[in-house]
Q: What sequence folds into this?
């Protein structure tokens, strides 16, 4: 009985990670940048959602859309201002810039509104279903659904639309894509917009499910989501989903055995084991480095 | 060739100038801050100056920025009030705030800066015990009083060798006291025998409370059926709560801070855990009610310094003034402790009749029955305030007075 | 010949700067704030130099350096506080155990490349932190109180040894092998360089000095807590190395000095501190992505003792 409950707990936690990891994986797939600011876009999304509901009195769906929209704009701005110039610089310089942007968003938010947490209003009905003795809240089902739907939409965009085709081309070979007449800058911006909108959606979902939002809330989930993305095979959209769920379930199981203070370590142990034995992640294909 | 060397040399010169400029900027600011007190033979020290300098070494950024910022709000309010009332013996208080990034090394640095550059008479801070302990040696060497608003660990005021740190004081309870109060309350008032503990393992505060709760509770005849831990900043506690539920406790003690506790209570109630919860002053914040929801908070208890519902005049004046200054925001425990720290210190400085560290320290050690927001404070031998603990119960999101426990 | 001259200049400069600072301290002209800032700078420079060896010279993207700092800090603190041994052997023990930890981490993870290596090292650093968090012997979350032993002399001697060893290593056969790995691992492998061996050696040496820095750190700040060694600390060290210029030791040293001063200076502006810090970081990276010094050493500007260096942009 407990085990069913624990698996339910793990899936709920994992779907949050998956939602953030989707955006991570997209951005990484196209410009090979560990976008540390992604977790902070997630935070901004949560706050926009919060203010949209609390101050502008929007209902849930409009608030979600507003949060996704503003996050998308923020993502594009970050890309244009901070990352675009560095597209031809070393990867590590871009990484440091990403850390800088991340700190800037975090402390900018603290400067504007202080560091105290905020309680997300409960806008969705919170019913508890009893299934085989396990309590499942309607919100956790909702979060799982949201992440699956967004993943499917994303899969559709990437594999069935023109812009998706451009994204795949750019991620494969940006130079060749340019020669083929693809507007690389616009494609990268579109990727950032979509990835950041997903982060914004994840922020709102997080707020609804966990209630507490604060300016530094993006740091740990951002890191975990990156782990999830690597776990599933970075750059692969279903991989992010699987990685997120695996990570959530593993963490929950560690806590379920009574080792919750070791939970973060366990996540990284799994990551390292996967990296060593399957360096390209669960769904990744092993590519040999060519000379 | 020469040209190339020339350009290289000029580049080097430019970077060097930049570097030296920054150095000078750094030194300059130090001097301009310290200048006033350096020249007139330490006016910040023994009197004659216009103002009394007090350092605030707080966690204004980093992991526990929200605690540090809350304390800073309390400090600002108190200083404003004191200065409006003419200061201490005509001297205004001047607060020099320094950020320690929630990092012990930075806290040491900041304390050194405050004592040797700014020459403050006393330092208020830090919010956590660790960042406070990091400053103990510095303030002792520099004969400056250190008053922590919320560093609850016993090792803050008493060193590892068992000797009291002369210059270190605190405004809050120490860990063991609250744990005892909670255990006695659970065993005697709630009459439970099987308790679970769910503590923040990343906080010495929570760990300290958990240890003393366990001791007292088992001595009172109860048993601890489950001992679990979480890590601050976690957001998902369902896994561990499911585990605790399986152990069937009649009561759950959750020492920790409101940010996590709010979520724990909400998630516990969702999982169908209906037993009473209890915690310490770290719970006290209006945010707790928002996070957990008023319904989930029913049947929970906290030990606290005071109740914001208490009709006591000191408390109500504070609550009103605080709401006035911060757009109607209700104060939390950190706000109150920051506020009280300034008044405790001001009282000491006044009785010392001087801004000299050694004299303030002696005066503070003799503090007796000083009425503050967080209770009537008497500083004991170990430099801890002996004050009454209040047990409060949450009913529909309101704190309701339950009982008072004397130390 | 040039090398010997450069070397003697380095020794001379070091001796002079040590002498000046030490006499200022003994004469009481430098107050505690300045002497402490100098010690903190020395610690940060050791950290920067040790990570420079891993990232700048060998080209291995490690972003978990704070883990080894933590190992050094805790081990040396255990030696002095629990086993009551003198400070110098404690420092050495901290360094050695950190080097062992470096081997332990390096052997499995250095098979990985690029971002995968980065995230694995970050993971190891977090694991190390969580381990200390859960060991009650070292105080768990509350941390461990440590006596103050670090003085300017200890800090300086450690710094001097670190720089000396790293400079000599860089200019040795081993160092050149490491640079070859940085420039092109496959080519280096094809040339008969045992890439795994050199990567692990560089990693272990880097960890050793990070451990030494940890010992100095622990005994300078009175208390060590696992929270001091989170991934943000790793990023701080990484920033020194990248900001200074990857592959440039003097750049790393310079950036460590600069950023420590900037950070200390900003302490007095709590509201905007981190904002200014992050803006500085982003602007420097945008306008000088190769870092302040590029891959050049300061000696390149002086025309003396040019160390081994790769002029090519790194790691594209």
A:
């Amino acid at each position: 009985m407990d085990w069913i409950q624990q698996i339910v707990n793990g899936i709920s936690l994992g779907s949050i990670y998956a939602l953030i990891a989707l955006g991570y994986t997209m951005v990484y797939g196209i410009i090979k940048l560990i976008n540390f600011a992604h977790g902070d876009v997630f935070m901004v999304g949560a706050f926009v959602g919060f203010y949209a509901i609390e101050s502008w009195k929007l209902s849930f769906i409009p608030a979600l859309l507003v949060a996704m929209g503003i996050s998308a704009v923020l993502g594009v701005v970050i890309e244009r201002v901070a990352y675009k110039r560095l597209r031809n610089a070393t990867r590590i310089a871009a990484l440091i810039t990403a850390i800088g942007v991340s700190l800037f968003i975090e402390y900018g938010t603290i400067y504007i509104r202080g560091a105290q947490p905020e309680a997300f209003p409960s806008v969705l009905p919170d019913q508890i279903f009893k299934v085989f003795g396990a309590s499942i809240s309607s919100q956790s089902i909702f979060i799982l659904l949201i992440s699956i739907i967004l993943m499917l939409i994303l899969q559709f965009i990437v594999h069935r639309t023109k812009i998706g085709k451009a994204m795949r081309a750019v991620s494969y070979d940006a130079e060749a894509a340019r020669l083929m007449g693809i507007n690389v800058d616009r494609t990268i911006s579109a990727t950032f917009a979509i990835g950041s909108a997903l982060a914004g959606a994840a922020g709102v979902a997080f707020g609804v499910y966990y209630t507490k939002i604060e300016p530094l809330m993006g740091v740990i989930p951002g890191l975990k989501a990156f782990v999830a993305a690597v776990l599933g095979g970075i750059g692969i959209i279903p991989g992010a989903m699987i990685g997120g769920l695996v990570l959530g379930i593993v963490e929950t199981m560690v806590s379920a055995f009574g080792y919750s203070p070791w939970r973060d370590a366990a996540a990284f142990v799994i990551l390292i084991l996967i990296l060593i034995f399957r360096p390209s992640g669960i769904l990744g294909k092993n590519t040999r480095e060519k000379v | 060739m020469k040209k190339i060397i020339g350009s290289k040399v000029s580049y080097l010169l430019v970077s060097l100038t930049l570097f030296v400029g920054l150095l000078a900027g750094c030194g300059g600011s130090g001097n301009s801050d310290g200048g006033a007190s350096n020249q007139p033979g330490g006016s910040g020290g023994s009197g004659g100056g216009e103002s009394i300098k007090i350092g605030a070494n707080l966690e204004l950024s980093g992991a526990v920025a929200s605690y540090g910022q809350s304390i800073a709000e309390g400090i600002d309010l108190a200083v404003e009030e004191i200065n409006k009332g003419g200061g201490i013996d005509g001297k205004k208080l001047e607060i020099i705030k320094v950020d320690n990034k929630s990092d012990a090394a930075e806290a040491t640095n900041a304390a050194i800066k405050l004592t040797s550059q700014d020459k403050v008479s006393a330092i208020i801070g830090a919010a956590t015990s660790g960042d406070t302990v990091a400053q103990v040696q510095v303030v002792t060497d520099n004969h400056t009083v250190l008053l922590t608003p919320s560093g609850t660990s016993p090792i803050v005021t008493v060193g590892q060798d068992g000797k009291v740190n002369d210059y270190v004081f605190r405004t809050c309870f120490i860990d063991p006291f609250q744990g005892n109060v909670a255990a006695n309350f659970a065993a005697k008032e709630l009459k439970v025998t099987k308790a679970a503990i769910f503590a923040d393992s990343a906080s010495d505060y929570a760990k300290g409370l958990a240890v003393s709760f366990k001791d007292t509770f088992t001595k009172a005849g109860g048993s601890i059926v489950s001992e679990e831990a979480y890590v601050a900043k976690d957001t998902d506690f369902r896994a561990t709560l499911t585990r605790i539920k399986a152990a069937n406790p009649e009561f759950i003690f959750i020492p920790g801070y409101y940010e996590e506790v709010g979520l724990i209570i909400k998630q516990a109630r969702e999982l169908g855990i209906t037993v009473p919860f209890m915690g310490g002053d770290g719970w006290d914040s209006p945010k707790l009610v928002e996070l957990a929801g008023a319904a989930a908070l029913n049947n929970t208890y906290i030990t606290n310094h005071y109740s914001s519902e208490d009709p006591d005049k000191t408390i109500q004046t504070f609550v009103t003034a605080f709401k006035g200054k911060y757009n109607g925001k209700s104060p939390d425990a950190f706000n109150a402790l920051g506020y009280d720290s300034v008044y405790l210190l001001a009282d000491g400085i006044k009785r010392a009749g001087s801004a000299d560290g050694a004299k303030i320290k002696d005066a503070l050690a003799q503090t007796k029955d000083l009425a503050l927001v967080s209770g009537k404070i008497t500083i004991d031998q170990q430099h801890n305030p002996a004050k009454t603990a209040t047990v409060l119960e949450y009913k529909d999101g309101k704190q309701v007075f339950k009982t008072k426990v004397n130390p | 010949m040039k090398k010997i001259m450069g070397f003697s200049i380095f020794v001379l400069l070091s001796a002079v700067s040590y002498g000046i600072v030490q006499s200022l301290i003994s004469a009481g002209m430098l107050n505690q704030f300045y002497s402490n800032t100098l010690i903190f700078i020395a610690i940060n420079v050791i950290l920067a130099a040790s990570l420079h060896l891993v990232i700048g010279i060998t080209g291995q993207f490690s972003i978990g350096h704070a883990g080894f700092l933590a190992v050094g800090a805790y081990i040396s603190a255990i030696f002095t506080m629990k086993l009551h041994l003198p400070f110098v052997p404690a420092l050495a023990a901290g360094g050695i155990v950190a080097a062992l930890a470096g081997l332990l981490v390096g052997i499995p993870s250095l098979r990985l490349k690029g971002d995968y290596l980065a995230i694995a090292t970050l993971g190891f650093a977090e694991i190390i932190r969580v381990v200390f968090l859960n060991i009650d012997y070292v105080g768990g979350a509350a941390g461990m109180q440590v006596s103050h032993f670090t003085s300017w002399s200890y800090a300086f001697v450690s710094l001097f040894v670190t720089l000396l060893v790293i400079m000599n290593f860089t200019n040795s056969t081993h160092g050149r092998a490491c640079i070859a790995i940085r420039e092109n691992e496959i080519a280096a492998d094809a040339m008969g360089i045992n890439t795994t061996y050199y990567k692990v050696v560089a990693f272990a040496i880097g960890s050793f000095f990070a451990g030494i820095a940890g010992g100095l750190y622990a005994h300078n700040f009175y208390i060590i807590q696992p929270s001091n060694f989170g991934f943000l600390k790793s990023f701080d060290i990484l920033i020194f190395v990248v900001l200074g210029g990857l592959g440039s030791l003097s750049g790393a040293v310079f950036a460590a000095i600069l950023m420590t001063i900037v950070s200390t200076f900003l302490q007095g502006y709590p509201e905007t501190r981190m904002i200014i810090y992050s803006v500085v970081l982003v602007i420097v990276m945008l306008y000088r992505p190769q870092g302040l010094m590029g891959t050049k050493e300061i000696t390149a500007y002086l025309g003396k003792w040019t160390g081994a260096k790769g002029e090519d942009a790194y790691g594209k």
About this structure: The domain at 175-304 of chain B is CATH 3.40.50.2300 (Rossmann fold).
